[in-house]
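Help: why these numbers?

___
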Amino acid sequence: MKVYVGNLSKKVTSAELNDLAVPFGTLVSANVATEKSSGESKGFGFIEYSTAAEGQAAITGLDGREVNGQALKVNEAKPRKEQLDAPKH
């Protein structure tokens, strides 16, 4: 299950996001979205778990948690818009 983590401080790294996510289950990945040109954080990221139950536990455990003075917004990730608009073969 892929989980969206928003309202991240620009200082949070993918490694720190990984550390936040580990207590809730087996991670597939944890990545902070960054600007291609500067490498600066976009203020959100994604964590992916091997099961939906682990993803749900992370949503429950992390949503609203304060990290670096900012309350996280955590929910199930939605498919990217271009994936929704892509023609199906």
